[in-house]
Amino acid sequence: ASQPESRPLRALVARLVARQGRPAEAADELAPVLDSGDASPALQRLVAELELAAGRTEAALPRLRQAFST
Predict the structure, then answer these.
(1) Please, which residues have CB within 8 angstroms of residue 62's CB and are 6 or more apart in sequence?
(2) pLDDT tens, 21-66?
(3) How many angstroms separate the CA atoms of 8 and 12, rounded?
């Protein structure tokens, strides 16, 4: 499980990795935060967008559904 204090660091790393053109790695970096069950809809949407950019539509769809259902 993701520790709350690690969230800002994970977000920073994910932004840097995404800027380097590696959206799959950025999404993977944020996945533990989402798996904790208390991620915001904005974070869920961000990870879904990264998944889409990485060509991982199957992974993006549940994230988008969760973001819009909360």
Answers:
(1) none
(2) 999 999 999 998 888 777 889 999 999 999 999 999 999 999 999 8
(3) 6
Q: Let me know: does 52 contact 21? Beta carbons within 8 Å.
A: no
Give, in order, the Cα–Cα distances in Å from 39 to each of 22, 23, 62, 70.
Answer: 22, 19, 14, 10
Q: How far apart are CA 9 and CA 66, in angstroms?
A: 23
Closest C-alpha to 7, from 30, 24, 23: 30
| Whole-angstrom distance, CA of residue 2 vs CA of residue 37 | 10
Exposure letters 7-39 (e unless 16+ CB within 10 A, then b): beebbeebeebbeeebbbbbbbbbbebbeeeeb
